[in-house]
Amino acid sequence: MRRSIRTMLGLAAATTVLAVGVPALATSANAATTTKTVATLDFDDSWGYYYSKYYNGSRAKARGDVWEDDDARIHVSGKLYDKNSPNWLCGYVEVKFENTDGDDSTSWAKKCGSSGYRSFHFYADDVDTAQVRVCYFDNFHNKKVYCGRWDYVYEADDQE
User: Residue 98: left if φ>0, alpha if ψ -120 to 50, beta else—which one?
Assistant: First the structure.
C-alpha cells in the first residue's frame, strides 16, 4: 500500500514539474536563441576547427570568427586548444594578414597544457586575405613543428 501511494505521489510531482517547467524551458530556449542570433550578427564568418599535424596521437586545434569593423579593419579571433601533448610541446596558432602588394604581417598565440584554451584576437588594416595555421611549438628547440596547412579565413571581394 505504501509503495503505491509513493508511486502516485511521485507521478503527481513529476507531472507538476513537467506542466510548470516546460513553458519555462521554452521561454529560456527562446531567450537563448534570440541572444545567440543577436551575437552572431556581429561576425561575417566563423572558421575552424583547424588542426596541427599529429604528434603521438594528439593535435592542437583552433576555431574562431573573422569580421570587418566600421574602420575597414579585419579582425580574426578565436580559441586555441592543446590537448594531450607532452609538456615540451605547446599549441600554437598563426594568423597572417596580406595586402595586394604582397606585404604580410603574422601574429601568433601559444597555449601550453591540456586544461582549457587560450583566446586570441588580432586585427590589421588594408587586408586582402587572412590565413590561419595551427602548429605545435617545441619549447626545447624554440621553433614551430608539426604545422597544419594555411587555411584562408578571409578574402576581400574584388568586385567594386
Answer: beta
Q: Could you give the CA distance from residue 84 to residue 60 in angstroms, rounded to a whole number?
A: 9
Can you say how many angstroms the Cα of residue 24 is from the centroid of all Cα atoms in its chain? 30
Contact in structure between 99 and 126 (CB atoms under 8 Å): yes
The predicted-structure confidence for 95-117, as pLDDT tens digits, reads as follows 999 998 889 999 999 999 888 99
* Residue 31 or residue 70, greater confidence: 70
Q: Which residues pair with 119 in a beta bridge?
A: 79
The structure's pTM equals 0.70
* Strands 60-68 vs 45-51: parallel, antiparallel or unpaired: antiparallel
What dihedral angle (degrees, nearest 10) is formed by the CA atoms of 34, 35, 36, 38? Answer: 80
Q: What is the mean pLDDT of residues 127-148?
A: 97
CA–CA distances in Å: residue 48 to residues 56, 114, 137: 22, 19, 20
Helix (H) or strand (E) holding 51, with range, is: strand 45-51
